[in-house]
Amino acid sequence: MLFVDDLRWDAFCQLSPRLRRAGIRTIRATSESHSRSSLVNGLLFDRWIVLDEEGTALRELAAEERIIDVQFVETLGGLVRDVLDLLDDDVADQVGRRLAVTDKLAAS
Question: What confidence tens digit (pLDDT) does each residue in 42-78 have?
C-alpha cells in the first residue's frame, strides 16, 4: 500500500500500523523531510521516501515495488497520475477513477 502526502497526514499514520499487523507492506512518499520524521516514518511504515518536485523518486519507487493500492492527498494527484503507467492495470484503473473524482471540474 502506497501513501502519498505533502505533510504529516494523521489518517495515513493511523492506518499504516493496522495494515502492517494484517501483513500488508506500507510505503510512504512524502514531501516532509524533518529529521524527526525519519524516526516516526521508520516506526510506522515499512519504507518511506521524500518526494522530489520532478516526481523521479516516486516513479523509481513505483517501478521497484508491487503496489496494491495508492492513497493520496488531492494536492499530489498530479504526481500520482504520472506513475499510473507503472502500476498493475487493475490498480491503475482504480486509482485513475479516484483521480478523476478529485478533479472537481472534471467531476462536475
Answer: 889 999 999 998 889 999 999 999 999 999 999 899 9
pTM value is: 0.89
- Alpha helices, H only, the chain: 10-21, 35-44, 56-64, 77-81, 89-102, 104-107
Using CA atoms, how far apart are residues 53 and 41, in angstroms rounded to an integer? Answer: 20
DSSP code, position 46: S
What pLDDT digit, counting tens, does each position of 16-39 carry? 999 999 999 999 999 887 766 777
CA dihedral 3→62→60→42, nearest 10 degrees, is 40
Q: Give the total residue count for the chain.
A: 108
